[in-house]
């Protein structure tokens, strides 16, 4: 099974120490799209799901990478962008096929 954007975001968050994960959540909330109270006690999987549902699959990897970079985790951000771009590309191909198929109906 191919990696999804959610898988890529989960992997990036799973690699963080407890302190860095807390810093990530605090910085993420500065976007004002997600409130700290919503994610304060959440696991990496729960936070990743909220990121994808809030910023969409197309924007989730980029937002996660931006937050990682903002807290000084540039290497983690670069890794995620590399993997996230691949996941995003596959998603766009799927959407393009769906759109083409739908127009043909």
Automatic annotation (TrEMBL):
Organism: Paramormyrops kingsleyae
Protein name: Pyrin domain-containing protein
Stored InterPro entries: DAPIN, DEATH-like_dom_sf
Superkingdom: Eukaryota
Start and end residues of each Pyrin domain: 1-86
Taxonomic placement: Eukaryota, Metazoa, Chordata, Craniata, Vertebrata
């Amino acid at each position: 099974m191919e990696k999804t954007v959610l898988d890529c975001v989960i992997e990036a968050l799973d690699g963080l120490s407890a302190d860095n994960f807390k810093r990530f959540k605090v910085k993420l909330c500065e976007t004002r799209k997600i409130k700290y109270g919503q994610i304060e006690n959440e696991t990496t999987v729960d936070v990743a799901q909220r990121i994808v549902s809030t910023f969409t699959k197309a924007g989730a990897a980029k937002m996660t990478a931006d937050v990682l970079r903002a807290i000084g985790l540039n290497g983690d951000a670069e890794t995620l962008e590399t993997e996230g771009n691949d996941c995003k590309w596959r998603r766009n191909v799927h959407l393009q096929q769906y759109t083409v198929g739908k127009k043909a109906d």
